[in-house]
Amino acid sequence: MTSRYFFHMAFLGTRYHGWQRQSNANSIQALIESSLSEILKEPITIMGCGRTDTQVHASQFYFHADIDTQWDFDLRFRLNKVLPPDLAIFDILPVESTHHARFDAVLRQYDYFIHTYKDPFLNLVSTQVDNSPWQLDKMKQAVALLTRYNDYRAFCKSPEAYEHTRCQVAHANLYINESGNRLRFQIAADRFLGRMVRLLMGKLIKIGSGVLSVEEFEYYLIDKVTPTVWDPAYPQGLFLSKVNYPYLVQPVGTPVTTMPDNTSWQLV
Fold first, then answer.
1. Which residues, 6+ apart, have CB-to-CB distance to 250 below 8 Å?
2. Residue 243's closest CA among 129, 91, 75, 120?
3. Which of 103, 106, 133, 262 has the most CB atoms less than 10 A away?
């Protein structure tokens, strides 16, 4: 009898060309499918809760799989032993056959990290931006606009690929560390478009640097004008940090706020 399971996991995306299976590139989905198929001795296809760009990370991610085999061993332990150190499975949860990892998600949250100094321990999980001082008041004003608008066509790399470009942002905040040399942008919404968070972050960096005004930023949200020049922030600072379902809100296995240290974040 076939049963459906949700797998709760996290990954460091540095070595991968995103989550989605690709014919000519190293993907997380393909690696997990291969590992599960080998362990369970049956072909396994999985469905992720979303897609991620090359080098983007996830401190909380879900995928579902329909499995015929009834195993009598610790599948989570065995799968973690087979998978490389940059992928971790936290939970394997039996769910209803109609539950869907991608379509049932009601909220996704992303965190983007910036540091303003060269640090070999941050360069894989944060983006270095040599800018000081930051115009934090302007950045805060821009971030506050995000819950007031619901069409993000101007922040989508391929808007024509979507039926619509409306996204309901639940919250958006900007944080800074005690030393003032690290920033964290957090945004949660019912859905996200391709490159949306990185494109937003690219504009916020320009606002913080004094290159772009808050009024110009809001113009994109009001008129939904697709930019002629794309300037997304680099991928390595981006984490998918939370995914919620109507029937499942699981504690994050590796909170993004602890990576790579226990930085104390203060709301701007």
1. 8, 60, 90, 91, 93
2. 91
3. 106
Nearest to 189 by CA among 212, 213, 169: 169
Give catalytic status of residue 53 as yes or no. yes
The predicted pLDDT at position 230 comes to: 82
88 Cβ contact partners less than 8 Å away, ≥ 6 residues apart: 9, 10, 11, 80, 253, 254
Listed residue (79, 53, 85) closest to 194, CA to CA: 53
Cα–Cα distance, 75 to 90 (Å, whole number): 11
Strands 182-189 and 107-115, sheet pairing: antiparallel
Tens digits of residue pLDDT in 164-178: 999 999 999 999 999
Report the sign of the C-alpha dihedral through residues 167, 27, 92, 67, in that order: positive
Check 53, 66, 119, 231 and give the catalytic one. Answer: 53
Chain CA centroid to CA 262, Å: 20
Structural domains in the chain plus CATH codes? 3-95 (3.30.70.580), 107-267 (3.30.70.660)
pLDDT at 5 over 70: yes
At 52-109, the pLDDT tens digits run 999 999 999 999 999 998 999 999 999 999 999 999 999 999 999 999 999 999 999 9
d(CA 171, CA 151): 15
Residue 192 to residue 105: CA distance in whole angstroms: 12
> Which pLDDT score, from 0 to 100, does residue 225 have?
83
